[in-house]
Amino acid sequence: MALGIAYDGRCFNGWQTQPNGNTVQDYLEAALSQFTAEPISTICAGRTDTGVHGLAQVVHFDTQAERKLISWVRGVNALLPESIRVRWAQEVSADFHARFSATARTYVYIIRNEPNLAPSWVGRAGWDFHPLDLSAMQEAAQYLIGTHDFSAFRSSICQAASPIRTMEQLSIEQEGVFLIFTLKANAFLHHMVRNLVGALVYVGKGRFEPNWIKTLLEQRDRRFAAPTFMADGLYLVDVDYPAEIGLTSQAKFVASNAFQSLLQAL
Asked: Which positions carry the signal peptide feature in this UniProt record (predicted)?
């Protein structure tokens, strides 16, 4: 069984289960286990960190329970806190894997660029009060497109076997006081998005020229890059799967609506 999950990251210590139990995975598995009357263990498409939001997370799990698809949505939601919601449910083949079957993930990072962060956006958007040069950041972002060794942008505790990733898209747009970073890659390293945003913001502040990003890629050393940017404005907005899996149309519809709603809130 596969589910599409959305959650407000402000409420949780990230996705992955922890001893304190205050993670999205902990709450979801508890609700699923109660709903099915059997122990449930889930696998997700991307393990988000503390404070990171999910608009289109995908999970899969094995179960002997048989329910209508709408029951998986409404029944499990009735057992979840309001900050986590099942958006859709779909039966999948035994070889479907939420993480390894995915071909790409898309994240959006939102920054409010203003003197003081509006209270209503605390925990929902990143913030920087310095004037940021949009064109310089856009130029710098182009160095990150393609297949690269992203060692300079991975956490020291990253467990990925390889730092090689393929960045399909990295665009930056401005909407009033908001800067919207859209990043799509085959997969991301631990803290990779936040480290990339931090480096691009340094370029936007004028601390480095855009080609500094190229130098960081070549150095492959995290010590020379910018600090990890705050988690607040990071959203997992889409996960791509091969069309033959059958999730594409449903998941895309929900993900697109969720993303458009996010943009309308800006």
From this structure: none
Amino acid 255: pLDDT: 61
Active site residues: 49
Mean pLDDT of 43-51: 95
107 is an annotated ligand-binding site residue: yes
Is pLDDT of 249 > 90?
no
Close Cβ partners of 138 (under 8 Å, ≥ 6 residues apart): 171, 172
Where do you find CATH 3.30.70.580 in the chain? 2-101+241-264
pLDDT at residue 246, as a whole number: 80
**Residues paired with residue 180 on neighbouring β-strands, in sequence order:** 110, 173
pLDDT band at 21 (very low <50, low <70, confident <90, very high): confident
> Where does CATH 3.30.70.660 sit in the chain?
104-235
Compute the C-alpha angle 38/8/32, nearest 5°: 5
> What is the mean pLDDT of the segment spanning 154-164?
93
HSE-CB for 218 with a 13 A CA cutoff:
6
**Statement: 104-235 belongs to CATH 2.60.40.3080:** no
**Is residue 42 within 8 Å of residue 63, measured between CB atoms?**
no
Q: Measure the CA–CA gap between 213 and 91, rounded to whole angstroms.
A: 43
